[in-house]
Amino acid sequence: MNDSDSLSLAPELAPDAAVPRLVPDGAAEATAPPRPESRRSFGPLSRRLADQGLFLFRHRGLFVVFLLPAAALAVLERRSAALPADPGLGWFAVCLTVSLLGMAVRAIAVGSAPPGASTRSVRGPSASRLNTTGMYSLSRHPIYLGNLFVLLGFALAVGSWWFVVTAVLIYWLLYERVIAAEERFLDERFGVRHRRWTERTPTFWPRPGLWTSPETRFSWRTVILREYNSPLLIAATFLFLRIVDQVIVGRLSAGAWLRQDVALAGSVLGLAVIVSVLRRVRKRGRSGH
């Protein structure tokens, strides 16, 4: 399974499907379902978290619903300041780098997933194989780790430290439950193999010394076909934040902003065209035309 595999911090903060977006990937053929005695016993609190996580798995858009009011308040707070600080493009470049780091983590996890290991579903966790190599040898949920860095870059660009704390806290409260739902599913699906993996591999923060080479070669084709929406999403979000910073907070006219950041706007537009072409190619490939 692939941590829902979407960049989507909301229903698909990324790929056409997402996660993302926040997306577990597998590495061991699933056989018959594990026998009851091989399953872990979950306590009342764990079961409650997993039940809540299953609901949130299906309604990941709630993340944006919870976050937007805080973002709007942070923007209004900056606008009401006597002399709102202009972070400049340099700060935006730093924030963009943080988000791109998250996208790189996602790409490495997706691109090295064994065939049949990575699945997407909006109904609930699903997997036919258990991936324990590559990024999944460092962390059991690298897709969500990547999504956190993507979010962190966005939050830093808003320019309010309390908003950064709020965004990370909301993310953790929601995805802690989604992870609990996925862990329960994997334990029921793979039994002892999953338990051995959990005993040696951290849930979230990676431990570099545990690295195990992926059993399949890294595939750029897989990354492009599954993550092509992610660069556009990140670029469009930073463009929007730049407009908010200059036009709403800085009170610059739309025309003056466009003349100032025409290269930035043009780059995002060009990226949108490329993504549109890739989407059409992918759809034709699926239809066989």
SSE order and pairing:
Elements: H1 44-58, H2 62-80, H3 88-111, H4 142-158, H5 161-190, H6 192-200, H7 220-227, H8 229-249, H9 254-260, H10 262-287
Question: Could you explain the architecture of this structure?
Answer:
By secondary structure, the protein is mainly α. The protein has a domain at 36-219: Up-down Bundle (Four Helix Bundle (Hemerythrin (Met), subunit A)), CATH 1.20.120. It has ten helices and no strands. It is globular and about 60 Å long.
Total number of helices: 10
List SSEs in N-to-C order: HHHHHHHHHH
Structural class: mainly alpha
Average predicted local confidence, pLDDT: 78
Largest sheet: none
Q: What's the helical proportion of residues? A: 55-70%
Total count of strands: 0
Report the CATH topology name of the domain at 36-219. Answer: Four Helix Bundle (Hemerythrin (Met), subunit A)
How far the N terminus sits from the C terminus, by CA atoms, comes to 30 Å
What is the gyration radius calculated from CA atoms?
20 Å
CATH class identity of the domain at 36-219: Mainly Alpha
What's the architecture of the domain at 36-219, going by CATH? Up-down Bundle
Shape: globular
Into which percentage range does the β-strand content fall?
under 5%
Uncertain regions: pLDDT < 50 for 5+ in a row? 10-38
